[in-house]
TrEMBL record:
Pfam families (UniProt xref): PfkB (PF00294)
Gene3D superfamilies linked to this entry: 3.40.1190.20
Superkingdom of origin organism: Bacteria
Species, as recorded: Candidatus Nesterenkonia stercoripullorum
Matching InterPro entries: PfkB_dom (IPR011611), Ribokinase-like (IPR029056)
Carbohydrate kinase PfkB domain segment(s): 176-302
Assigned keywords, A-Z: Kinase, Transferase
Name recorded for this polypeptide: Carbohydrate kinase family protein
An example Gene Ontology molecular-function term: kinase activity
Signal peptide as annotated in the record: none
């Protein structure tokens, strides 16, 4: 990136109680924390990353302490005046599948919360539950900013029961959101919660089952017709596929293979890290495939360790991408 950049990251920083598929149990903070740390590793010291998040008062000092050593992170958007933040229990049944329960709940990010960062070049929205970053906030950003809006579909396709269990939901209000989203990123299970025609010709539709490959193009076309610039669907260990038009009426799709890793330690936060890589790739290269290559690289870095220090420098990440794909740009 040749000029100073500013990126806002919207969502929760939950305190996660994690049981891995290997039986290891530990607690740590997550979500926005991963996105911010990954962006910090990629961006220069002159750039600025601004997390916008509500946390519990008892967690505020510990969260800020984890980010305080990063020279390009503005901590002023981490606020505890609502004294509401996420507590989440994650139990992995395999390295990509988990059972989730939420015990406390972040106050939503409202339009007034993003007013101080409306000059940002990008807004990376990584909610984990449907209410956390709402349509009014995205509309406020669109109407008052020229920044790129990246939305992780995990939020609008997830909801809570009265006892805190987290389940998939149909994103029935999808079309009212799409005009406020530039890049929609989700996995195949979240895509299946966002594409309703599949329910009409499936004998026993199961909410949260992966969207079949045969339906991905139609789903992407629907989103692109409504103003989304790119739809990226992650495919776990296979990489991702991204649909885009790049100024034409014809939808193009590119499969971007995974960045290989020797051993998967913990996949918590891989999607949040992927979103960080995508944001950097778009801002730095204005190219859909380059954005996905950075996304895959940051997701791969995240899964091989548990600490925020696991992220590589920009130079190391570019080298990693070149070793995998031959170059950053297609």
């Amino acid at each position: 990136m040749s000029k100073r950049r500013k990126v806002a990251v919207l969502g929760p920083i939950p305190r996660d109680h994690i049981t891995t598929h290997g039986g290891e149990v530990f607690e740590k903070y997550g979500c926005v924390l991963y996105t911010v740390a990954a962006l910090s590793a990629l961006m220069s010291d002159e750039d600025l990353i601004c997390p916008i998040v509500h946390v519990r008062r008892e967690d505020e000092a510990a969260i800020k302490d984890k980010l305080a050593h990063l020279p390009n992170v503005d901590l002023s958007g981490i606020q505890s005046h609502t004294d509401r933040g996420d507590l989440v229990e994650l139990v992995y049944t395999d390295q990509n599948t988990r059972i989730e329960r939420q015990a406390d709940f972040m106050a939503p990010v409202l339009p007034r919360d993003v007013d101080p960062v409306l000059d940002a070049d990008a807004f990376v929205c990584v909610p984990i539950t449907d209410y956390q970053v709402g349509i009014e906030t995205l509309r406020h950003i669109r109407q008052n900013s020229n920044g790129l809006i990246i939305l992780d579909g995990h939020g609008p396709t997830s909801t809570l029961t009265r006892t805190g269990e987290r389940f998939n939901r149909l994103w029935l209000e999808r079309d009212t959101w799409l005009s406020y989203v530039d890049v929609l990123k989700m996995n195949r299970e979240e895509a299946s919660c966002s594409w309703f025609p599949i329910l009409e010709h499936t004998a026993k539709p199961v909410l949260g089952e992966p969207l079949p490959d045969s339906e991905l193009q139609d789903f992407a076309d629907h989103c692109l017709d409504r103003g989304v610039r790119a739809v990226c669907v992650t495919l776990d260990e296979e990489g991702c596929v991204v649909f885009h038009r790049d100024g034409t009426k014809t939808t193009q799709h590119d499969f971007v293979s995974v960045v290989p890793v020797d051993e998967v330690v913990d996949t918590t936060g891989c999607g949040d890290s992927f979103a960080a890589g995508m944001a950097y790739g778009y801002l730095g290269y204005d190219d859909t495939v380059a954005a996905c290559r950075f996304g895959n690289a940051m997701g791969a870095q995240r899964c091989v360790g548990s600490e925020l220090s696991i992220y590589r420098t920009l130079e190391q990440t570019v080298r990693h991408i070149e070793e995998t794909y031959g170059s950053v740009l297609p």
